[in-house]
Specification:
This protein has 418 residues and is an alpha+beta fold. It contains 12 helices and 16 strands.
Length: 418
């Protein structure tokens, strides 16, 4: 067999050996199917709930500087340490002095079975996600550069946020209940009031109030779903499959103080770098590419009196310790108990019995990261509204939303503290 496609959903894997032959197998049964078929090439489409996607903003735009700062930024945004994931990032907006990026992260344990199959069977493995695949297929047909694009399935909604013609976010919902599906779509539209395009069965137009802007894609057959259309595309349009090239990030020390140090040093080095003469020397232009060289330049610009550089990160942290000891400034301490009390007081009485908090992480003195579970999206919207109205928090941002087999909502919140 030349090619095989596996569309990995939370509760099943759709396997396509040809555009006409698609079947569903349990997640733990996919390996046996692939081993029996022994394809030369395996396309693995990861569904949106298996990915983490986040937008980040930096006061610099060089890729080396972003790679250096990214592990520290993700430390506060992922439920587990960044080294337990593989990552890829993309520029959304880039100027000389700033950049907005989209970061995609996948847990190593999600990828390990597929990497092991690649090694064992000697096949070519192409990883992608349904979010990027949907964007690749629909992007050329969009009449505007800013909009929502939603794939409507019988029990799965996949909504891409397109800004400036680029994929800048993606959200998904598993469930068949029409009211919950409508709440999901209305919540997204309330976050970004943009034109809404969709593709899927015509019968869903009125049921979900999808509107008139349906994209011109084939209508699924009576025994087919929208996911069936998506899983066969790698066999039909191989050239338009956007591969994910996930890698581990450079390991660096983490923590609020170190984050401030790294970002400050990077920004300082970029400003100083505009005037450093060696950028005008042609033979030196191609020798300032590695992270090690960048770190050394940052350290030299900050501590010009130190002549011997052994470990710039350790040395700069030691310098900061010395400065802190000689400084008379007393930084205000934040009370963890006070923040926790403010959060508890802001929870509506109607949610007390439903809300389960799994992660409560205070990052420095500026933000609070919370992961938890609720019964449905309506309760999540109620919680967000209550926290937003609380004087204890400057802003509330909803991150990843996913659903378990019982349709309970798992969510991440980032709260800015005064």
């Amino acid at each position: 067999m030349k090619s095989l496609v596996c569309y990995v959903l939370p509760d099943q894997v759709l396997v396509a050996s040809s555009p006409e032959e698609i079947r569903s197998v349990p997640v733990n049964g996919a390996e046996e199917v692939i081993t029996t078929a022994h394809p030369h090439q395996l396309f693995v489409i990861l569904s949106r709930p298996l990915l983490s996607m986040r937008q980040l903003k930096f006061p610099f735009s060089q890729s080396q500087a972003i790679n250096l700062a990214l592990p520290v930024e993700l430390e506060d945004l992922l439920p587990r340490p960044p080294e337990e994931y593989l990552h890829q990032w993309f520029y959304l907006n880039r100027s000389r002095n700033s950049a907005d990026i989209l970061v995609v992260s996948v847990e190593r344990q999600q990828l390990q079975p597929w990497l092991e199959l690649k090694r064992k069977l000697g096949l070519k493995l192409v990883l992608t996600s349904d979010s990027f695949l949907l964007h690749s297929l629909t992007g050329p047909l969009l009449p505007v550069s800013d909009c929502w694009v939603t794939l409507v399935g019988a029990d799965y909604l996949l909504s891409n946020l397109i800004e400036g013609g680029r994929l800048s976010g993606s959200f998904s919902f598993f469930g068949k209940h029409p009211d919950q599906r409508q709440v999901f779509l209305q919540t997204l539209k309330s976050q970004k009031d943009l034109p809404f395009f969709w593709l899927g069965p015509e019968k869903e137009r009125l049921a979900l109030d999808l509107g008139k802007d349906k994209l011109p894609f084939p209508e699924p057959g009576p025994d087919q779903d929208s996911q069936d259309w998506l899983v066969r595309q790698p066999l039909i349009q191989t050239a338009r499959i956007p591969p994910l090239r996930l890698v581990a990030l450079t390991s660096t020390p983490t923590g609020p103080v170190f984050r401030d140090v790294v970002l400050a040093l990077i920004f300082l080095a970029l400003v100083v770098g505009m005037t450093i003469p060696y950028f005008q020397i042609p033979e030196m232009k191609n020798k300032v590419e590695t992270v090690t060289q960048t770190m050394n330049q940052l350290f030299t610009a900050t501590c010009p009196d130190v002549r011997r550089i052994v470990d710039p990160v350790t040395q700069i942290k030691e310098r900061l310790r010395e400065k802190k000891q000689t400084s008379s400034e007393v930084l205000p301490a934040i009370s963890v108990l006070k923040v926790m009390t403010s959060f508890v007081e802001a929870i509506p009485d109607t949610l007390v019995s439903s809300l389960e908090v799994t992660h409560f992480i205070l990052t420095g003195s500026s933000s609070l990261f919370i992961s938890g579970r609720l019964d449905n999206l309506t309760q999540l919207e109620t919680l967000k509204t209550s926290l937003t109205n609380s004087a204890s928090f400057l802003s509330v941002t909803v991150g990843d939303i996913s659903f378990d087999k019982d349709r309970n909502v798992s969510f991440n919140l980032m709260l800015k503290l005064p």
